[in-house]
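Email to the structure team, subject: Aspartyl/glutamyl-tRNA amidotransferase subunit C model.

Hi all, the expression group asked for a predicted structure before they design truncation constructs. Nothing fancy, just the tokens so they can compare against earlier work. One-line instruction: predict Aspartyl/glutamyl-tRNA amidotransferase subunit C, return tokens.
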Amino acid sequence: MALSERDVRGIADYARVALTDEELTEMTAYMNGAITGVLEPVLQYGEADVPPTFHPIGDLSNVMAADVPEPGLSIDDALLDAPSPRDRYFRVPSILGGEE
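Reply from the structure team: attached below.
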């Protein structure tokens, strides 16, 4: 499974790497010698015996928890530690100026 210079140029373009003609020749030789040699053992496995994997978690279809609302704080509990609540609201300093 040798790569042509056209293949290597396509890979370089995809990776946004500019190669001169000399670099292209060197990279083609390097990829055909070192890189594809690493992949040869993978190509020796029988493809017919191996079912395709479409998703890494297999048959799991829904791994999310149910979206069920939980009870929150009551207004009194929420305002318990507020420095100066007013009626049923948090009282905060005005950032626009004007009356409090």
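The chain has a mean pLDDT of 84. Residues 57 and 65 are 16 Å apart (CA to CA). Ping us if the truncation boundaries need rechecking.
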